[in-house]
Structures are given as C-alpha cells and as structure tokens.
Design goal:
Blueprint lengths: L5 H5 L2 E8 L8 E2 L1 H16 L3 E11 L3 E11 L1 H6 L5 E10 L2 E11 L5 H13 L1
Parallel strand pairs: 1-6
Antiparallel strand pairs: 1-2, 3-4, 4-5, 5-6
C-alpha cells in the first residue's frame, strides 16, 4: 500500500468484500470491482504526502474466521500536526478460503469529535435516565 501497488492491495481480498470507509459512499462498497475503484484516490492522497502508521494491532483467530482491530496514525503532515492524538480506527474480518486467509470485510472510521466531550457525556446521561 505504501508503494501504491494496486494488485498487491487487492491480492488477499475476497471477491465479495464489503468495506465501510471514511469517504463516501456511506452505505459501503461491495465486491472486488467496487473495492478496486477506491484505491486510486487513496494512492493520490498518499502521493500528496499523506501517511499511515499502525499504532496498535490486535488479532483474534478461529478455525476459519478471524478479525483484527487496529489504531493508525493517518493523515498529511499538517493534519497529524494539528491533531496528533487523532487515530483512524480499523476493523478487518477475514475468512480462510482454500487454506489461505483473505479479507472479507473492512471498516475504517475516525471518532466524531465535532460535539466534544459534552456530546458523549450527554448521550451517556440520556441512556442512564
């Protein structure tokens, strides 16, 4: 991914992959052809100086199904300088097909910080009532 290698980025994904990403469409991308179309804009963004770095990664593996969740530092140098605490959240679902682990689901998100801590506190308070 760092090299902008599209075939490498697609190599270990299922034909029926589902991805929920930060950019639209908000109802997700379904299938390898639609997934393939998401990569050129990402590579363009990365070529403008954006970077991503895994901060933490946890993996849980079963017989034929696994999942991983991670936090990444992700952004341009300016974005990272302005929001050094910001983390991209990543969840990946995998399944074993013909003895090989492949990605069947990806979900990327950033925390919504628009409401500040007050929004979370208000929601927790409403839930407790």
């Amino acid at each position: 991914m760092h090299r902008g290698d599209l075939s490498g980025a697609l190599a270990n994904h299922t034909h029926d992959i589902v991805m929920f990403d930060v950019p639209p469409p908000h109802d997700g991308v379904r299938g390898i052809d639609a997934y393939r179309e998401t990569w050129p804009p990402f590579f363009e963004w990365q070529a403008q100086g954006a970077a991503f770095e895994i901060v933490s990664l946890d993996v849980t593996v079963g017989g034929d199904v696994a999942y991983a969740h991670a936090l990444l530092r992700c952004g341009t140098q300016k974005e990272l300088a302005e929001h050094p605490e910001g983390r991209l959240r990543l969840t990946v679902g995998l399944r074993k097909e013909q003895g090989r682990w492949v990605v069947a689901h990806e979900h990327h998100s950033f925390a919504d910080t628009s409401a500040g801590d007050g929004g979370a506190t208000a929601a927790a308070s409403d839930a407790a009532e």
